[in-house]
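Hey,
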Amino acid sequence: MRTTLDIDGKLLDSVVDATGEKTKSRAVNAALKEYIRRKQVQELIDSWGTIVVDDYSDDALRLDMERRAFLDSLGKDSP
């Protein structure tokens, strides 16, 4: 998508150097992608401790033991 922007020339040159891209367009796209990635990482960090995760490990262990007992009762090897 073509867009006309008024960008500081020195800043743009710095972005091209920092990204190592060969064109200004690629450098700007790389910088924008990195900005979005960092923003998403920060949002994830900010949400630390606010996400509730149900722990079903005890239930899974119990069900696995029941499965193994059932297989043993059939005379089949369990893994």
